[in-house]
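Lay summary. Proteins are chains of building blocks that fold into shapes, and those shapes determine what they do. In this project we predict the shape from the chain. Here is one chain we studied, written as its sequence of building blocks.
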Amino acid sequence: MNDFYIEYMIKAQMREEVEACRRRRLLKQEASPELRSNILKSASYAFRLFDFERTKVVHICRDLGVSRRMFHRYFRSLEKCLRSCKQGE
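And here is the predicted shape, written in a compact code that computers can read:
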């Protein structure tokens, strides 16, 4: 292997590590009680619109512009989210 290729691969790996660190930092910043209440609002709207049977986590996440991982940070499952919506948290 030539030195140029090795240098290129090292830089690419460093960029990936920096990007992964940036994503983790953004996830930590986004965790907030307001986001949880926004998830609940979006979920209750989706449950009314699609019924529970047809509602997917993806519908809620797309509405808010968050990842499924972020959704599951607050709720372990769609059922738990539905229970929280019914309790009016």
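What the prediction tells us: The chain has a mean pLDDT of 83.
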